[in-house]
Amino acid sequence: MRLVIVLMILFASTITVSSNAQEYLTGIQWQMPPIIKAGATDSQPPSDAIVLFDGKDLSAWENGEKWKIEDGVMISGKGFVKTKQTFGDCQVHIEWTAPTPPKGTSQGRGNSGIFLMGRYEMQILDSYENETYFDGQAAAIYKQTPPMVNVMRAPGEWNSYDIIWTCPRFNEDGSLKSPAAITALHNGALVLNHFELLGDTPYNRPPEYTAHESVGPISLQDHGNPVRFRNIWVRELVPPKGEKTREPFIRKGKVETPIEKSK
Ligand code: MG
After folding, report:
1. Beta-carbon neighbours within 5 Å of ion ligand 1
2. For 128-175, what is each residue's pLDDT tens digit?
3. Nearest residue to 245 (alpha-carbon basis) of 233, 230, 263, 231
4. Where does the pLDDT of residue 253 fall: very low under 50, low under 70, confident under 90, or very high at 90 and above?
5. What is the mean pLDDT of residues 36-55?
6. Ligand 1 centroid to residue 110 C-alpha, Å
7. Fewer beta carbons within 10 Å, N or C terminal of the chain?
8. CATH ID of 50-236, from 3.40.50.720, 2.10.220.10, 2.60.120.560, 2.60.120.10
9. pLDDT-derived band of residue 254, with 50, 70 and 90 as boundaries?
10. Ligand 1 centroid to residue 132 C-alpha, Å
């Protein structure tokens, strides 16, 4: 029995040695990812976020004077608001709640919307026990796709959207190089999984792409309903940086992954 155990240990250590005998290396020298401070909770902005509304003022928004703040909450007023700052690929967090008591039906109940780049709408609507066309309900890309699920909370309760947005890219001649794409969570549930947009999101014609700048504002829709908002922030997305210094290769012998020096 003891012999068996000794043999097993030897065998195991042999395996360990042989698995260490070679290592795959990418040939890419990565820079150290920036260290940022997490928010107090996952819904609070990390330290590199740009805060668009923290309950105090609407100074980040054009037309903000036409909306109002009550008890630290931003309430939809007359006309769209749009951010003074513009964004490209980004992550957006926004919390909103439908008016209570609910009024109206279908598209007339708790309607607003978040427009990425000022032109691509992810629908905001009171979709709690409120029927409407599916590609117009909460978390839909308006007139393009419904969300995968309806995870809407009742009016008066807070909803969150966490959006990962990839801008469309255009060629120099104005033709589309790559479409916009969106991944989004509604109240923590995935509702849009890298959905590639067909174009903009108007009510009265098919979606289309028209070349535009590589950055744009985030706007919030006034649809005549006093939808309430809080805790809005955005992070600009910067891909990890690395430099290919050689082709991928296998390093032989007992090796350890070196920690590349950050630049
Ligand atoms: Mg809308």
Report:
1. 111, 113, 221
2. 999 999 999 999 999 999 999 999 999 999 999 999 999 999 999 999
3. 263
4. confident
5. 97
6. 9
7. N
8. 2.60.120.560
9. low
10. 12
Q: What does the longest C-alpha to C-alpha distance in the chain come to?
A: 84
CA 49 / ligand 1 centre spacing (Å): 25
Pairing of strands 242-244, 28-30: antiparallel
Write the DSSP symbol of residue 58. -
Q: What's the CA-to-centroid distance between 123 and ligand 1, angstroms?
A: 5
- Is 0.85 topped by the overall pTM? yes
Ligand 1 centre distance from Cα of residue 12 (Å): 62
Ligand 1 centroid–CA 260 distance in Å is: 48
**If you measure from the C-alpha of residue 47 to the centroid of ligand 1, how many angstroms do you get, rounded to a whole number?**
30
Question: Which pLDDT score, from 0 to 100, does residue 21 have?
Answer: 86
Q: State the Cα–Cα distance between residues 40 and 45, nearest whole angstrom.
A: 8
Q: Judge whether 164 and 184 are in contact, CB under 8 Å.
A: yes
For residue 121, report the distance from its CA to the centre of ligand 1, in Å: 7
